[in-house]
Each structure stands twice: as C-alpha cells, then as structure tokens.
Amino acid sequence: MPVPIRGAGVISDVNLTDLYGTAIGVNSITLTLVSPKGTRVKLFDRNCGVTDLFDCSFDDDGLYTLLNACPPIQKKIIKPLEPLSAFKGEDKAGDWVLEVVTDRFLSGQANFYGFKLDICSEIKVSNPFLLTNLGLKMEQGQTRGIGQDKLESQDADNTASELTYTIVAVTQRGDLYLNGTKVDYGTRFTQKDINDGKLTYQHTGGPMETDGFLFVVEDGTGGWFGTDYFKIQIGSVSTRDEETKLSIHLFPNPAQSYIDISTSQSLEANARIRVLNLNGTELIRESISFSKARRLDVSSLSNGIYLVELISGAQHHTAKLVINR
Fold first, then answer.
1. pTM (two decimals)
2. Which helix (H) or strand (E) holds 272?
3. SS3 assignment, position 211
4. Chain-wide mean pLDDT for the chain?
5. Is the pLDDT of residue 243 over 70?
6. Rounded to 5 degrees, what are φ and ψ at 207?
7. Which CATH architecture has domain 2-123?
C-alpha cells in the first residue's frame, strides 16, 4: 500500500495511525513500513492471538506494547516492534509503502482498508524564480499574446501547471484576458496557461504610452516570490526597440564541460556573466567586456539546472543552462 509524499523535508518523527483491516487471525500478519530511501521498520510480526481485526495506530510513544496491546483494536496506540525513529534524518519525499505479509500456514488472508502517516519534518522550500520577464512591445490597438518567451517562472521541484500567478494590480490602458475571459484583481493562472498561449493583452488606449500589471508567483508547497511587474510599451518606437534588446544564446545546451555564449549585440566595458544555482547562489562570475562571444568552462558544475545571467550596463538577460554528463 504506497503513500506518495510531496515536498522535501528532514524527518524528525513518524507515526502510522488509523490502521484498519481484517484478517483470519492477526497472528498470521507481518506489517513493515518502508521509507522512500528503503529503510524498513517492522511494526507487527505475527503477534497476538487468533483475533480478526486491526483498528490501531503505531507510535514510538504509544501507551501499549505488543505484549499488552492484544487484541490490536479500539484505536489503541501501540509501540511498534522496531522503532519508527529509524526514519529520523531521512528526506520524507517519495513513496512510502506499508508491506503486508501473511503466513499461509496459519491462515494467509487479510484485507486492509486504510491508514495514515503522520510525518513531522523540517520543511525545505524551493522558491520559484523568474526566468524571463521581457515585457511586451506593440502598436496602438493591437492584441498580442503573452507567451513563454515573454514571461516564464520555474521551480526546481514543481511543474508549469503547479506554478500559479496571482494578479495584484491590473492593466490601465488595455485589458488582459485569460482564455478569452477578462482578468481582474485576484485572477489566478498557471505557467502552463502562459505556455499554452491562453494569456493575451488588448490595447485600448492612446498611441504612445506604457501599461502593465503586477503579479506574484506561488508553487503550492510554500514557495513563492514577491511582487514583480510585467511592462507593456505601446507605439512604433517601442516595437523597433525589440530589435536592439540584449539577449544571449548558449551552445551546447545541455552541456558537459563548456558552453559557448553569444550575444545579440556588443557589450559594454563592465559586462559580466554569472552562473547561479536555483537557490540564487553565485557559482561562476567572469568578465565578458566588449565581446559578442565567449567560451565558458562549466566543468565544475554538477548535473542539474542553472541560470546564466548576462549583465551589460543597464541591460540584463537570463537563460537556463542544463548540465548533463
């Protein structure tokens, strides 16, 4: 009977509660709890007599031992045969399994209908991060989509459908739509909605102006990042500006020992490259001044996902890098 647990955390205590099942003789049953790491704790091993019901919990601090807990009914809290503290210090995330083994010589038949796992842990929150926020540039009266190339958040342990945006300030010179429905304060949508082309903006104002909206992003497991602004510029000058916006290209990606970095324009004297992990820790920093191409040694990085940030004067651009050896 597997129980999937989402979200990482270092275990401090585990209890198995509300176990309910029937058996032709509980003294034919062995119960073992197995953690995602593979640690095995035997809770019950053909104890008690020929009774036919489990209705109990297992806790290292239980009031009963297996010597005086029989029959295991009436929601008794029983100390397990082996201590559940064996799981202490492990990561709780993954599939937990309650193994049920029957002794066919004695009876060999049992039906279990459910149980709960109570796990106390120190929560490890991986916050989402904003990978791309390029804004939108458009002509007066246009309607344009806001896709993954313009706005993208990511998270180390959440999918696009689990990253949720909430609008905290709406556009003023046009309307934002989600799948054809006008967006208002508090409207929520996911990164997958953006990836699927469901978010659009329709301009209704004057010929040369700026609009935008404020948003926050959450991942549903306690991770989030604070308010950010998506800028929308209206007018012919704005659309031409897209051609001169700073961008970078990484090759190869995924990479093993190096990447070649090329940029869309020549860089300023103080331009630099930074490589960060998903927690925001800087791992590599190098100058890339006055150059449009540079090879960067990434052999020191372990397999995983990283952010490569290029900063040149007031402009910056971030790209995702995957190391896979």
1. 0.50
2. strand 272-276
3. strand
4. 86
5. no
6. -75, -30
7. Sandwich (2.60)
